[in-house]
Every structure is written in C-alpha cells, then in structure tokens.
User: Fold this.
Amino acid sequence: MSASNIRAIALSLLAPAIAIVLSILVTTLVIAAVGSSPGEFWSTMFEMPKPRLRVDIVNQTAMIYIAAVAAAIGFRMGLFNIGLEGQYTIASFAAASFAGAAYLGGLANVAASIVVAMAVGAIWSGIAGVLKTTRGVSEVISTIMLNSIAITLVGYFLNTRGVKEGNTVHTTNLEPGSTLGGFSPFEDRDGEIWVLTLLAVVVGIGFWVLLNKTRFGFDLRASGQSESAALASGIDPKRMILISMMLSGAVAGLIWLPALFGGARNYGTSFQAGLGFLGIAVALLGRNRPLGMLFGALLFAFLSVKSNDLTFGTDVSPSIVQITQGVAVLAVVVTYEVVRRWRTRLEQRAVSRELAGAAS
Amino acid sequence: MPSAVDAVQLRGIGKRFPGVIANHDVDVTIRSGTVHALIGENGAGKSTLMKILYGVQRPDDGTITIEGKDVVLKSPTEAIEAGVGMVFQHFMLADNLTVLENMVLGAEKLHGIGDGARAEIRRISERFGFDLDPDVLVERLGVAARQRLEIAKVLYRGARIIILDEPTAVLVPQEVDALFANLRELRAAGNSVLFISHKLDEVLDIADDITVMRRGTTVGTADPATATKRELAELMVGSELPSPETEESTVTDTVQLALHDVTLTDEFGRDLLSDLSLTIRRGEVLGIAGVEGNGQSELVETIMGMRIPSAGRILLGEQDVTHWHTRRLREAGIGYIPEDRHRHGLLLDAPLWENRILGHQTRPPSAKGLWINRKGARQDTERIVEQYDVRAPGIDTPSRALSGGNQQKLIVGREMSGDPVLLIASHPTRGVDVGAQAAIWDHIKRARRAGLAVLLISADLDELIGLSDTIQVILRGRFVGTFEPSTVTPQELGSAMTGGEAA
Assistant:
C-alpha cells in the first residue's frame, strides 16, 4: 500500500515538474530570440531575494492563494468563475468604505468588514448564479460582463463619494485602531507580513475540510465529476450551482483584505488589480488541490515579485515572467491530462493483474 | 453457390490492450456465401475481433486472409476496399438527411449523388427486400428500417462480407424474423455474413456455421444442424446458462407504489407519458416491456423525482410523493439502478468507497449529520464487495478500472443497502457477463422474497418474463397491455410492443 502511495505522489508531482521545466525552456528560448541573455535572466531570477522582497512574496502568496481557492471552489463544481476579478474589486471597495466609515471600533470593525466583503462578493457572484439557474446563462459570459460592471461601478462611486487628495481619489482612511499591520521578520524598513495573510491559512484548511469531510463537499465534487450522476443521486443541481457560485464569490471577497488592513488603509491607487486572474491560473496550476495551489501561489508570487529585480540588473523586461507563468499553466493542463491517461492505464493494468493473480 | 475460396480466414489473431489480453490465438474461417455466427459472452473478445477485421484496430499477431489474399487492414477504408463492411450496434446515420443522402455520404464517387445513386439504391432495396425509399428522411424511419439502411449502405459500397454487431439487440421478435429473411437473400446472392450475437435461438435459426469465443479466444465451432442450445451455452460459459425463472409468488396485499393517471408533458406540450396508472405491492416485481424510447426512461425519472409530472399522483406507501425531489425519495427508501451506469450510477474517477456514498450522502453509514462518515462508508463498501462478489483489488480502486459486471454489482449492492422499500431497476443486467447476470437476478429475487417492491424495466424479454409477477407493455408513453408472465410468449409481447403491427 505504501509503495503504491509513493508512486501515486510521484505521479501527481510529475505533471507540475514537466510543466515547470517546459516553461523554463520556453522562457529561455523567448529571451534568446529577442537577443537578450537568458543566463543573466535566470541568475537574476534565482538569486536569493532581498528581505524586503521576501516579505512581499509572503504577502502576495497569501492573496493569490485566497484567489486560487475561490476559483477552485467553482472548478471543483464544474463552474468557471472568471469573475473573481470583479467580485473582489467590488468587495474590497465595499469593505474599505465600510471600515473607513468606522461604525464600529477596533477589531470589531475589522471583523464586520470581513463579513461585508464576503457578503458583497457572494451577492456579486450570486447574480451570475441566479442567471445560470433561472435563465441558463453561461457563468463564463455573465461573470466576464459583471467584471466590467463592477470595475465601472467602483470607479463611479470612488469619484463621487471618495476622498480627493491631489490627483488621486480613495476611500476614507481606516482609523489607526482598525489597521492591523503585521510583523516584521527582518528590519522595519523591509516591511511587514500582514496579519490577515492568516486568512489564507483559514481559507485553505476550510477548503480542504469542506471538500473532503462534509456532505456538502461530497455533493460539490460529485456535481463536478458527473452532473448526471449527481442528479440521479438526489443532488439538486440548481441549488448546488447557486451555493457554490456564492461561496466562490464570498472567498473572492477576502482576496485583498490582507493588504487593506495591513498597509493600504484605503481603497485607492494602492488597490492591486489582477489577483483574480492570477488566482484562476494558480488554481489550474495546482489542480484545485489545497496543497498544489499553495505551491502554485508561491511560485507565481516569487516570479512576480522577483521580476522587479530585472529592471535594474538586466535588459530583460519584467513582463517576461508573464510568459513563464502562462506557459506553466498551459503546460500543466496538458501534461496533467497526459499523466492522467497514463495513470488510468496503470490502474487498469494493476486491477487486471491483481484479479488474475487472485484467480489462479 | 459457396465457392471453393473461403471469404475470410483469421489465423492466430492476437490483440493486447494495456492490462487486458483482448484476443489471443483466434482462428475463424468464414466460408463464402454463408451466414457465420460468432457467439460468446460480453467481454469474450467478439467486439475486438470485429474491429480487427474491419480495420479499426490492428492485430498484434496473426494473419487475415480475405478471399484468398493476405491483407493488412490499416483503416475501415481499406477494409471496405477489400470487400468487408460493418454495421455497428449504434447506427451511424444523420437523422436530418434522406436515405439517399445518408447512402452517398462519403461514397459520392461510386454512383454520383443523383439519379444514378437513386437507381442503385432501388436496385439494392428490391434485390434484398429492404423496402427503402431513397427520398424519405431518416428521422422518419423506425429502428428496423434504419438497420436495413445501414446494411444497404455497406452493400452500396461494394462489400461482399458483412459484419453485423448484435443486430437483433434493438429489434422486437417480428423484426428479427424480417431481418433474417433479408440475410437469407444476401446469402443467396453469394455474400457472406458474420453475425455477432449471444442469443442462442437466433444463432441456431440463421447460421450456417458457428464459432464460439470465450476469454478472448475461439474455443470451438459447432454445426447448427446438430448443436443444441445447451451445448452452445456450455461452450460459451463453461457451464449451463442460468435462468431467471422465479419461484412461487411472494406478492402481498400492501401497495408500495401507486401511480394514478400520471401525465408528463415536454416543453412543447407534447405528452411523453399519458395517463399512466400502476400499482406495485410489496414482494411484487412489475416488469415494463417496450421498444426503447417509448417512455420508459421518462417513467423512471418521474418516479425518481428527476421530472415532476404535469398531472396525476404518485403514492409511495400511504404518502403522496408527487412533488418530492430525488433526495427525499431516496431517503424514503427507493433504490435506483439506473439505465446508464456510467452516466447516472457512478463517479468513474472516484474510488469505490466514494461511489458507495453516491445517492446515500444523507444516510448512515455514509453520513453523520452534516459530515461524511469515511470510516462507516469504507466498512460498508467492504461489506458490499464481499456480499455481492465485486471483483476489485480494493475499495480505493477507481470505479472506472472495474469491468461492467463488477461496476453493476457494486451499484446493485449499494442500492440494496439501507433496506429499501422499492427498487427501480432499469436494465439491471445490460452489458454484464452471464456470471454477474445470474448474481444480480438472485439478489433481486431474494429481496423480492423479503418484501421488496420492484419496478423492472428491461429490453431482455426473457429477463422480464423470468423475473416479473406482472408485465405491462408501454408504447408511446401509454400502457397498452397487461400480461401474465407465466403464459405470455415473447412473440405476444413483441406484438404489443409494436402496437400490433407485424414488422
């Protein structure tokens, strides 16, 4: 049993390993093709990051990971929630406005803001869920459209209700009592690891427990694996679509909160867009598995943060890492399918071998 | 006239798939101008052999000789050039095209697409009694006519050796007789037919030669003039075929399921089910006979709460369950063996123990409150594997890796768990081997003795007659006749299933 377990683990690591090698290869080729030095690029990238960047990587990993879990909830159900971007944009804005208004003080304000963010995210994704269950609108289409609507709405409210400061607009700053900050593993000037990065831990463990230990999680996985079998087993597909869509949106609402309560203190120019799409990519890279996505998030955060060094040390554009990231995702999807088929064959062979052995 | 040269000689054919030896040391000789039957259980390797002869798969070993010439067939196109054509069990026709268009599709060069082709189709149709009108849309044809069209397609392309994969599986008895008349015409014209079946009566009726396959190889030949069903069966399975006959009636007076004038309409307002009424008592097996697509699936889905009837009432015991959804019905004790186990019965990539939970997510031993009871589910899966003889290396094996019979035994075991009061069994032994079939019949009979009410839908008339206490025939969403299994013949059922018209 343990030998086959080891083989199973080795097999599951095979696909990402091939994917990473492939993406390194393609990136190298692209850099060489544009006439820069791949050696310089990789030596810069693989250099130990400076303390400031290490802190950055941890913070980014946490936010990307939350986004990945949000995407994975949809994927495991067979839904493609491409609207994480819009959901966390509008949820972040709502949470920042609510927290800035300081209806509550201190930690109560933080807790209430987290609830607000989740609720707003859930409502926003719930719109796509309702459209799908009542009108049969594909969630891919509706969430893409809701992304644009969310970003436009937030822009409008920010401009009409926000605080103007020079050329920029932002929501009311949090009161000092409601900022959580973080802790500095290195010197103060290297920045802090935000307290709410812990949300990523909670979300990751919660996701694992929900999926593997609860009836709801079983229904979710069953629906994702076979809609027809799920229906015949008594799962109400519409209810599942709506709930998992809203759950995905609720988690998406958390994506930017570490930054808000850590360093940003308001929704404005400091808002980091694009985490939703990164999350989708990382969910694909990590095959929607809690641990797989953690490595994926770490890899993506590392590449994104470390690419800043390229500006100074080399003549390679930092955007080149987007090629590395993109190829990694593409390659992992393809290699995973290849490995899966290979594994199915191995399993079938193992079954017939064991049965033949038992018969004789 | 049978000529001296054999139509097909297969010598020492072997084909291995990962983990499975599908064929080994297969020898078949088809004499020219004969109907040659290839019989064997499901999984005996018949399909693989046919695919090899039709160029879909290439053998690892052995030689194929067609009309005296050694050939290597790399694709169906090459097989057709060599004179071999095949009619698959699942027809490959475009419904929205006419007979003529289907016929010439991909063979435009032979006789054009106009009057030349039309004349050729008429010639083939008249020659062999196919009764095909070139300008009728295929969607308006019945199953038997579609099959004749498939055979005609093969002839149109110049085949002299025609492979028929279980052609009678989709036909009612009268249609089978008509098909056999066509086959005799084909034979008289000097064509050779390879007829795949596991229905021994039919084989003895039509074949000139019989080859028997078991476990991937040919185990013998038989002469239909002298062979008996028993001998063939013993060759096929190594023992006598089991029979589904039930013993004395166990029907009680307690009504377990009652449908009162249930009507189901589709989104266009057409009736899929019209005024269906039935009752099943405890200890009773009610069989539903019918040509596929006459409302059987809709009936099952309505009872299972996957569709809600537009009129009428459904009672489970004393309770009105007309508007209940599937989960609540399952919790009330309905077991469900679905028609298509891959689509409705299993999570193919999930391990066996997770498949044990499917459909029982809310009940012990699979669940504890809102949590999945992993330990309980695993233990109970071990029990099912043991009691229902599911052949698998362990309960962590994904269900995809199991053979059809073992998958079905797992499903039967699961649906019999938790003391169901009603079992809906849709084609419970379709596509399973004889051993699993006998086991499944035994389980149904045992549960019936214990007071289970069973609704049995099957295309296998012997199974229906053997297991049922009463048989209802369904035609276009209506019940058109009630029969007593002890007295009814397959011919009578067949006649009712087609609305009395002789096919």
Q: What stands out?
A: Chain B has a mean pLDDT of 86. Chain B has three domains: 8-237, 242-333+419-503, 343-418. Residues 173-188 of chain B form the longest helix (16 residues).
